[in-house]
Specification:
single chain, 209 residues, alpha/beta, 6-stranded mixed beta sheet
């Protein structure tokens, strides 16, 4: 089966010319992009990628996941999930909300901006924080899943000419930040947006026996 990471980038290669207009559709941008990736996978690679089918694995503290499901998932012939993915579109005044959600205060934008290579160590995030929303919490939830591969995808839209200084600083952080531990990351610039992707290590990767 074609690698989901390659499918995502291949789909975005073809969507590049339509993204600017589609990103003006408030409230449904991520759902639109998920559907486009799903249709692209089927049409070009004959691969079934499904949206919002794979449940989030509950945290160790037993807190409810609220019925959350991962954005994208691919399954083997026995219907076992082999890849799960979370996709987040980041833009303008919503950068802080999309990245940090309502919490995750450990990593403040100012502190990340001061680092030459901003690093978010997901092993330092508690399960309580992981039930928040935003890209950081999405990453933590992904790491709990037993699938062979866990993809975190950030679509970072270009700022408009009237963007504030604060937005510009946050944009710079988003372009440089990395999530650890990971098995590799990819970045590709398009007209009007940048896509960043991390293949995250599973939750127990750093626990020694």
């Amino acid at each position: 089966m074609e690698d989901l990471a390659n499918i995502v980038f291949n789909a975005l290669d073809e969507l590049e010319g339509r993204m600017e207009l589609a990103m003006q559709a408030n409230g449904c941008r991520e759902a639109w992009l998920q559907a486009e990736i799903m249709m692209h996978a089927k049409k070009k690679f004959a691969v079934d990628i499904w949206t919002n089918t794979e449940p989030v694995v509950p945290s160790s503290n037993g807190k409810s996941t609220g019925g959350r499901k991962h954005d994208l998932a691919a399954y083997d012939d026995n219907d076992n999930p082999v890849t799960v993915a979370e996709l987040k579109i980041m833009s303008g005044n919503f950068l802080t909300k999309c990245m940090f959600g309502g919490g995750n205060g450990k990593w403040q934008p100012a502190a990340l901006a001061a680092a030459q290579t901003p690093i978010i160590d997901l092993d330092e995030l508690t399960d309580d924080e992981a039930e928040d929303w935003g890209l950081i919490s999405d990453a933590r939830r992904l790491r709990r899943h037993p699938a062979s591969e866990r993809l975190l995808v950030m679509v970072l839209l270009d700022l408009g000419e009237e963007s504030t200084t604060q937005c510009q600083k946050l944009q710079d952080v988003m372009e440089r930040v990395t999530f650890e531990p990971n098995r590799g990351e990819r970045t590709k610039a398009y007209k009007g947006f940048v896509v960043r992707m991390w293949k995250l290590e599973p939750m127990l990767a750093r626990i020694s026996v």
